[in-house]
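Students often ask why inverse folding is considered easier than folding. One informal answer: many sequences map to the same fold, so there is more than one right answer. In these notes we will look at a single instance of the problem. The structure comes first.
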């Protein structure tokens, strides 16, 4: 299989997680980052999401357990794309 060579300075960057202002558009199993004041405070996979988008539980990465976040907390949820997620291998 032929390989594609990239020109210097054109290396592909991993996709940045995208903010999701309407939590109702998230789905269980989405990989997310939770940000507060511009800083990532948690990462993981959505475990439970309220139908009205008012709260969500995530299973945090690296075995750190579950965490609850309320939309009213003022946190920003960013959906990680498959390219931005880390492999568990």
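Output (designed amino acids):
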């Amino acid at each position: 299989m032929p390989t594609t060579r990239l020109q210097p300075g054109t290396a592909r960057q991993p996709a940045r997680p995208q903010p999701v202002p309407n939590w109702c558009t998230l789905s269980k199993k989405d990989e997310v980052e939770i940000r507060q004041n511009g800083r990532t405070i948690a990462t993981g996979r959505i475990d439970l999401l309220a139908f009205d988008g008012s709260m969500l539980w995530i299973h945090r990465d690296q075995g750190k357990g579950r965490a609850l976040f309320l939309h009213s907390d003022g946190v920003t949820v960013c959906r990680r794309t498959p390219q931005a997620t880390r492999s568990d291998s």
